[in-house]
Specification:
The protein is mainly alpha-helical and about 475 residues long. It has 20 helices and twelve strands. The structure holds one RNA strand of 75 nucleotides.
Length: about 475
Amino acid sequence: MSQPIITRFAPSPTGYLHIGGARTALFNWAFAQSQGGKFLLRIEDTDKARSTTEAIDAILKGMDWLGLEADGEPVYQSKQQDRHIVVANQLLESGHAYLSYASDEEIEDIRAKAREAGVAARYPGRDEPIADEFKDQSVVRFKAPIEGETTINDLVQGDVTIRNDQLDDLVLLRSDGTPTYMLAVVVDDHDMGITHVIRGDDHLTNCAKQIQIYEALKWDLPHFAHIPLIHGSDGAKLSKRHGALGAEAYKAMGYLPEAMRNYLARLGWSHGDDEIIPTDKLIEWFDLDGINKAPARFDMAKLDHINGHYITESSDDEVLEALKSLINDNEFTPELSYSADLIDLERLKLCLPFLRERAKTLIELIETAAYLFKSCPLDMDAKAQKALEKEGVSEILKGVHTQFTSLEDWNRDNIETLLKDYAQNHDLKFGKIAPPLRSALTGSMVSPGIYDVIHSLGRDEVLKRINDVIPA
RNA sequence: GCCCCCUUCGUCUAGUGGUUAGGACGCAAGAUUUUCAUUCUUGAAACAGGAGUUCGAUUCUCCUAGGGGGUGCCA
């Protein structure tokens, strides 16, 4: 039996879990799931100045919302420092690293000269002894090979070869003795037994350097898969205005985690022509071969469509749970035209069957249900007001009011029959009846089906709202 | 500057040395509908450009262009 696969998601906690990170996490998770392996989480907080506990919290919450549960507790890279230092010293002893000191100016000078000469910058001082006065300010640099080349056998990008003379002697230990990211990833991935490193392709060049470290240490290489980055809708690097928002922002906008997973999975990965990929199928189908090499653009319209699909397909209970979570989450406030406090979830639940299929997002669904929770007298929008001012409207409203008063069983079918009969008996087109009724009951010309509106409001409320608009 | 990667409808993508280059979103038109939305039908819409290999290239190779990434005592 082959060794079980272990993947990891390793974000640096300098901000929320943005969409690119979420997808990287998803791919790692899906691959582990599909292979019956493990998915680990490592917080790369070696940069103490930029890492925050708020960010860690946001990442954890985002992954939780997306349903990407890691196996075991998260590993905090900062807690592995001692181990990183041990490895750095090992490298020093084996002659694969050296102490060095150079001022910022000197380093800048080296880079400027290299650029001028049209070559890659390389730190030239690996064989120079350090003056005593700089001993305690020195860093540990990796002694990277100069001859030959390094090839990454990437599972997504194919074989990528970089000449070793392009790769500089990177810093392993800073002058304050703390390990850098380059050292830490290698050590942690090795120590955690990671078999597949799936990460953004902004790490591709770094990967060559990391491979050199693995080789110096005589450690086995994990498999690498560098996935292309996600771009904004204009093809430029994803930024806030494109939707580089935190996962929790997507929750606030009314997206379902499963829809998010489906959309993100299809962004850069495919399984033939399949578009609707529920999570169980994702786990069944996910593979590294299906990952595309080109960067993909983030497209909200498609996300909306997928989300609408899942809202329609989910059960009332599932949608209700999502709604509860949305409304009760006090980390953010959903953008609503009315206060979320007014929402009566029990009533909303009864309306879900006809509300679900019309909404692309949970927010849209709540907005469509606004008529349920508005208080009388309703605020009429201009068009609704106009519909009420039409010739003969108050007569019609009075008429149906009387009919509604005496309707025996308040159910949708009876309401429909009642209105159709009324139209027929009074020789009216239905188009004469529905618009003013809709206005009176919802304050708007746009609403769910009129029978559903009437039924869901209940007799008392319907009579009251009609009364409100009939001139005395 | 130097190094690396990428390029099929507007977008996400399928696909093959010979296909009417397929699907989805979006868009347009039509049908259904009391409104909006849904749903259904139909339609427009792509192999970045140039060489080469080949009987034949969207597919293989090279070049160019465009985009992206790296080049940190950031991750």
